[in-house]
Amino acid sequence: MSTATNTPNPVLRVAPASPAAAAAYFGASLAFHADVSDVASALAADGDPGFVVVDSRSTASWDQGHVPGAIHLPTALIAEQAGQLLDPSVPVVTYCWGPGCNGATRAALALAQLGFQVKEMLGGFEYWVREGFGFETWEGSERRTPDALTAPLDAADCGC
Known about the structure:
Blueprint (H helix, E strand, L loop, with lengths): L18 H14 E3 H9 L7 E4 L3 H6 L6 E2 L5 H8 L6 E4 L7 H11 L4 E5 L1 H7 L4 E3 L2 E3 L18
Parallel strand pairs: 1-5, 2-3, 2-4, 4-5
Antiparallel strand pairs: 6-7
């Protein structure tokens, strides 16, 4: 008798969480994260989006490209400068390079420890550019063609 038939596949080797636990987890995740397209949509809408975007990268990285309207506040300077640059009553959305970088997470932690409401922008600057949103560099404004693996090419949004 084969033991392979008694062993669940890798997906189900650990059973899924209960619906209540899953709802709590995913609800909490949305309280901590925002995605690039939602941030871009909110910034593009008329009026105040209700949050400020903070780029936590170095000056060289900022000059290479950043989200229009973002505040440049490298993580190492948050403790010293956040009180002068940010309004504690306005939620903050942090970003760094991309999913392979935890700089936005470190910045969000530093801001939360100072009493700011904060979310992390999933995908960071990499996905901002890959999804075809405009960005600013030290030379001016740029926009690249959306990457078909990250954004729909023929629709305003992904429908999710």
